[in-house]
Prior knowledge:
Layout: E1 27-28, E2 35-43, E3 48-55, E4 64-66, E5 70-76, E6 79-81, E7 84-86, E8 91-94, E9 99-100, E10 110-116, E11 120-123, E12 129-133, H1 135-164
Antiparallel strand pairs: 1-2, 2-3, 3-10, 4-9, 4-11, 5-8, 5-10, 6-7, 11-12
Amino acid sequence: MTTMRREKSYIDGPATGIRHSEDMPWIPFPGIEGSHFKLLRLDRETDGGIFLLRVQPGVKGPLHKHFGSVEYFNLKGTMSFGKMKIVPGSYAYEMGGFKHSEDPPEVGETIRLFIVHGPLQAYDDEGKPGRVLGATAMAKLQERYVAEQAAAQSVAGRELVASRQCVRLPLVAVSTPGIARSPA
Length: 184
């Protein structure tokens, strides 16, 4: 009897799925103040994935190297990439091993959809290799952020309920002249 081996899916989780990004919070991107992400899909085999990246004006990405290829589609805002302009509707592709940094958005924030086929490694200001960040770590950051926000809302909700609790006073029968009381 021959057994069929099921190949792993590119999608982490069910074979199909829909993520509503508008229902997801923006997660602070580690080490880059003023940038946030929403991880839409994780590929555990390559430590890559698909995510939205939002970058505020004036925020320059650090020097980094991609271990796998990267594709992105610019949804909002304008920025320079070397001598090229990236505008809404621009598509870019970077080969694995490419080492670079991005110029900050010129005016307003940018939002890009990234498809990454592996982690990246950041470099410090002196050009020394720093930490490696892949989509698996991004997923953990996103899960922790969502859990922390839910816990904070739960605490805030309990505090709100506690502040609104009424003091219960014993009922006292009051007799009002001229008003007949029906028997209880």
